[in-house]
């Protein structure tokens, strides 16, 4: 047996956040037992009561990239649109699988305040991602398969009980093998999980039917009974072809008591939700998920969601500003997120001050449960900025930034303007590392590219590293990989996903800010990408509103990192 415990080494925030995170809830409804789960969304909203916390659990084998990874972004958008609190994730691969890459994926799909555990040394690792602190974690040996194990985490959710989470990916070999895996896991659980705590087993079971013997085995520690999650059409099957119930969220009886309807927007799913973006309507309820995401090439399965209303630690109402909380330095005119935690509060009022005394209202009322508000930072530089979040109906209940933060204008003023200037989609020969996208800052101030992304029609191809800055009038080039950067090209990087994968027959290249706002987008056809080794470029260079083959603009095949005429930026 292999059992390891770790402290939450990937914990991104300080102890002050730990206390506020326990108070953060998606206060959508009150403490209703399971038999009331089929009440309407309106009834649930009216039942908001202090003393409960909605916890959304998700099983997710929704990778769609090569080598079973989350690189293309289809699964990321589903996570962003459904906003789970705890995820039992399978095939937990992203980028080069370094700690930096995995942290970047969690930040993008869930948020920088989320915790995670990812089993080590596995080809297609299981893992757990959580809004709440992971206080212990590790893996139990699955002796029926050699490329993953059972990943577990003990999570300090609000309330008197911890939540034990086990992320599983059972083998496809046969129902007999799956039952052996189930028996082994049940033994681990009985030996390690306190009987008084909450428990969930979730993930990809690869089960052909709900009558397989493994469910009978699992029933000694979790409930396997109906109702079962289903999509908008009532289909509860979860494999790619929607023919078999592969994926499950199974909880013990202590937690099953608190199951409630899964409510998203105006939609309510009494037994939980199978997320299939192709049939979900209205799709805007799970934005930014796109209709084709669940049917993307290589998409493994459908995600499964169940919601629970668990007793909270306290019935005391409270608000805590999380960011900006003091010491930050933000660029004037940029788009940033004001974040907060709240309990026992329905709507909040948001304000800011630039001088420490005069307050300006951003919004007089926005849902407290959102926990975030997109703010276009004022254009005035200051060292004394703060934000304030208050109960919209009770101004006495309020919190503001603990200390001042700074708004700075790069290069002494002005604004940045980053645009796509040159693209090589059809690399010379067959070295796809040589594909590139050139960006130019045509503004009068430096651009902070931290967290900005480059995507094609399929998904995100590059995320700029924290601290990346592009000076006014300068260019930066993103190549398919670092190996493709030509000698002498200095301000260039390899794509964070190790590929651009631009289509020679036509594609769309999109540049987005860290807040998800589109900074520039270019759609091209085969006329601009059909010539081997020839890029297409703005015409005229930098300032043009249309694109032409580089040979037409300057008589050469390409000019990465330089002006079309070969001179430096």
TrEMBL record:
The keyword Hydrolase appears for this protein: yes
PROSITE patterns assigned to the protein according to its UniProt record, in alphabetical order: LTD, PROKAR_LIPOPROTEIN
TM segment ranges: none
Tree of life domain: Bacteria
Keywords: Endonuclease, Hydrolase, Nuclease
Domain LTD: 401-526
InterPro entries: Endo/exonu/phosph_ase_sf (IPR036691), Endo/exonuclease/phosphatase (IPR005135), Lamin_tail_dom (IPR001322), Lamin_tail_dom_sf (IPR036415)
Coiled coil regions in record: none
Molecular function in Gene Ontology: endonuclease activity
The name this protein goes by in its record: Endonuclease
Species, as recorded: Cystobacter ferrugineus
Phylogenetic placement of the source organism: Bacteria, Pseudomonadati, Myxococcota, Myxococcia, Myxococcales
């Amino acid at each position: 047996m292999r059992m390891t415990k770790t402290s939450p080494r990937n914990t991104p925030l300080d102890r002050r956040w730990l206390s506020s995170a326990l108070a953060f809830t998606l206060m959508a409804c009150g403490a209703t037992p399971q038999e009331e789960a089929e009440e309407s969304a309106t009834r649930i909203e009216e039942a908001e009561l202090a003393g409960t916390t909605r916890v959304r659990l998700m099983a997710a084998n929704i990778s769609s990239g090569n080598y079973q990874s989350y690189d293309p972004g289809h699964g990321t958008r589903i996570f962003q649109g459904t906003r789970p609190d705890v995820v039992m994730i399978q095939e937990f691969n992203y980028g080069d699988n370094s700690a930096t890459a995995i942290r970047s994926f969690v930040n993008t799909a869930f948020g920088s305040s989320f915790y995670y555990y990812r089993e080590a040394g596995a080809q297609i690792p299981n893992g757990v991602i959580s809004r709440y602190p992971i206080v212990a974690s590790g893996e139990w040996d699955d002796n029926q398969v050699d490329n993953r194990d059972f990943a577990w985490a003990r999570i300090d959710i609000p309330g008197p009980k911890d939540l034990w989470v086990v992320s599983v990916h059972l083998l496809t070999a046969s129902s007999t093998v799956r039952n052996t895996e189930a028996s082994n896991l049940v033994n681990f659980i009985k030996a390690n999980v306190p009987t008084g705590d909450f428990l969930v087993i979730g993930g990809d079971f690869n089960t052909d039917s709900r009558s397989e013997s493994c469910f009978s085995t699992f029933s000694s520690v979790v409930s396997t009974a109906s109702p079962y999650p289903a999509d908008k059409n009532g289909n509860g099957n979860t494999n790619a072809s929607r023919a078999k119930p592969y994926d499950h969220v199974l909880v013990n009886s202590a937690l099953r008591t608190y199951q409630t309807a899964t409510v998203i927007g105006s939609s309510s799913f009494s037994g939980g939700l199978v997320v299939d973006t192709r049939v979900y309507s209205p799709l805007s309820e799970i934005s930014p998920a796109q209709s084709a995401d669940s049917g993307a090439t290589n998409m493994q399965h459908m995600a499964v969601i169940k919601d629970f209303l668990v007793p909270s630690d306290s019935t005391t109402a409270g608000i805590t500003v999380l960011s900006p909380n003091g010491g930050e330095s933000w660029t004037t005119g940029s788009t940033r997120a004001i974040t907060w935690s709240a309990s026992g509060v329905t709507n909040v009022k948001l304000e800011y001050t630039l001088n420490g005394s005069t307050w300006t209202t951003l919004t007089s009322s926005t849902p407290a449960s959102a926990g975030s508000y997109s703010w276009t930072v004022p254009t005035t530089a200051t060292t004394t900025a703060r934000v304030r979040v208050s109960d919209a109906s009770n101004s006495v209940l309020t919190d503001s930034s603990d200390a001042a933060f700074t708004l700075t204008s790069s290069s002494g003023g002005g604004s940045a303007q980053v645009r796509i200037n040159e693209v090589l989609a059809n690399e010379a020969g067959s070295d796809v590392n040589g594909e590139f996208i050139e960006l130019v800052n045509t503004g009068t101030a430096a651009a902070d590219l931290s967290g900005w992304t480059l995507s094609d029609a399929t998904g995100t191809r590059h995320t700029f590293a924290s601290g990346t800055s592009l000076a006014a009038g300068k260019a930066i080039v993103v190549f398919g990989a670092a190996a493709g950067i030509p000698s002498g090209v200095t301000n260039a990087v390899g794509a964070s996903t190790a590929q651009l994968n631009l289509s020679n027959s036509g594609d769309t290249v999109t540049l987005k800010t860290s807040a998800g706002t589109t900074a520039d987008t270019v759609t091209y056809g085969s006329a601009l990408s059909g010539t081997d080794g020839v890029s297409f470029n703005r015409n005229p260079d930098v300032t043009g509103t249309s694109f032409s083959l580089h040979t037409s603009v300057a008589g050469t095949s390409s000019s990465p990192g330089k002006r079309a005429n070969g001179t430096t930026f």
